[in-house]
Design a protein that fits this description.
The protein has 13 helices and 21 strands. It has helices at residues 12-23, 59-62, 65-70, 83-96, 99-123, 129-132, 145-150, 152-160, 170-176, 199-212, 255-261, 323-333, 384-397, and strands at residues 4-8, 27-32, 47-48, 76-78, 133-134, 138-142, 166-169, 186-190, 194-196, 216-219, 222-227, 232-236, 242-244, 246-249, 268-278, 288-291, 296-301, 304-313, 345-354, 360-364, 367-374. Strand 16 and strand 17 form a beta hairpin. The strands form four sheets. Strands 4, 6, 7, 8, 15, 16, 17, 18 and 19 form a nine-stranded mixed β-sheet that branches.
């Protein structure tokens, strides 16, 4: 009898795992609390950032955090009512910035990123690739000389790892990027990234492929995970247990409680991000754009022009503060003045963020029936296919070709 694999979480990561396992002939349940809502992977900026090999917070940037958090108008903010709950997470973040850990973290991320784009291509039929992915690179816009100089060491380090950042003058940036008219000191172009033209469109496409291969879609909220000798039981909110031989925890920001049931209290919290998608915008461009000073991304997607980004620490259950979108639009208009500010679809999503900015990928160290694939923060879409490949390899073959030690669930 074919064993049954239950995957908890149907974002891009969970869906990609389900698809790959179904292609291997396995019996798969794909479980999510709501298939109608747009998850974090569907609401992102659409940048396949496979050159992002550095953890976002370093010892150098750590000193800036108090200034960001103290400013309610900053793109990185902490709601005061949630500050105490964040203390253990911030403590682990500080530990992770030790210089002795940096090289190992970079090497581990590089091991995944080097195949991340090709792994996306493996999941999309050749005839459909152009509909979803364009290898057009990313422009990083700097509005101040100080911020441009601050990133100089990272540019040098990227060059040392084989990437080739190109410094672009403001005048050339205006020529290359439609709608960009003002506010740029300098730009940096990185060719080693791609644009996903419709994150939610790709998610639905992969779900349809998985369903066509027999994946069973189950809408249920999982309250607890119980391991037994013969099987694993998932306790649901509606009362009906789901039984599986093996499980994958890929529930993004909702993964912490289930992981704790399995013996590990990981420092997982949420970086809440906001965006607005403007249909029929006054301009389009084919690349990805990140405004470094403003900490926002501007993307031309199939659905329209998306302006988003920022980080809000407020917990998974707090109500959205859509005034943050007004702030983002104001910042975006400093660069793209023709962006309309009174229309568009507003959205908030919870990025699942580990304190050390490294996802959890791999097998339970004491139970070979349990796998983890969560905590990818800003890189969930980028790393979805490569994560799925390695989880599938572990389940089917018992091994994979990349060292996942730095991503272990018990590393803390």
């Amino acid at each position: 009898m074919t064993k049954k694999i239950a995957i908890i979480g149907a974002g891009l990561i969970g869906t990609s795992i389900a698809l790959r396992l179904a292609q291997k002939g396995l019996n798969v349940d794909l479980i999510d609390r709501s298939f109608s809502q747009q998850p974090a992977s569907g609401g992102n900026a659409g940048i396949i950032a496979y050159s992002d090999i550095f953890p976002m917070i370093s010892a150098k940037t750590l000193l800036k955090i108090p200034l960001w958090l103290a400013d309610p108008k900053a793109m990185i903010t902490l709601r005061p009512a949630y500050a105490f709950k964040m203390l253990p997470w911030f403590f682990q973040l500080i530990k992770s910035t030790q210089p002795s850990r940096k090289k190992g973290a970079i090497e581990a991320r590089l091991g995944l990123m080097k195949t991340a784009l090709n792994d996306h291509y493996e999941q999309i039929d050749k005839a459909d690739i152009a509909r979803f992915i364009a290898e057009t690179g990313t422009y990083y816009l700097y509005q101040k000389e100080a911020s441009f100089n601050f990133d100089a060491s990272n540019r040098k380090l990227k060059a040392d790892y084989g990437y080739e950042p190109e410094i672009v003058s403001a005048s050339d940036a205006y020529k290359r990027i439609n709608g960009l008219e003002q506010g740029v000191y300098k730009a940096v172009f990185e060719k080693d990234s791609a644009v996903l033209k419709s994150p939610m469109g790709l998610l639905q496409y992969l779900r349809d492929k998985a369903r066509g291969l027999g994946v069973n879609f189950v809408e249920a909220e999982i309250l607890a995970v119980e391991r037994h000798v013969d099987d694993i039981k998932l306790k649901t909110k509606h009362g009906d247990d789901i039984t599986a031989d093996e499980i994958v925890i890929a529930a993004g920001a909702f993964s912490r409680k289930m992981t704790k049931d399995l013996g590990f209290d990981v420092p997982l919290d949420t970086e809440r991000g906001y965006n607005v998608t403007i249909p029929n915008p006054p301009f389009e461009f084919d690349c990805a754009v990140i405004a470094k000073d403003a900490q926002i991304a501007v993307s031309s997607l199939t659905e329209g022009l998306r302006v988003g980004g920022g980080v809000e620490f407020a917990g998974i259950d707090a109500k959205p503060n859509y005034k943050r979108i007004d702030m983002m639009l104001k910042l975006a208009k400093q660069l793209f003045p023709s962006i309309p500010d009174d229309r568009g679809v507003r959205w908030m999503g919870c990025r699942p963020s580990m304190a050390d900015d490294m996802p959890v990928i791999g097998r339970h160290p004491r139970d070979r029936r349990v796998y983890f694939a969560f905590g990818h923060a800003h890189l969930g879409m980028t790393m979805s296919a490569v994560t799925a490949k390695h989880i599938c390899n572990l389940i089917v073959d018992g091994k994979t070709d990349v060292d996942l030690t730095r991503f272990r669930v018990d590393r803390f």
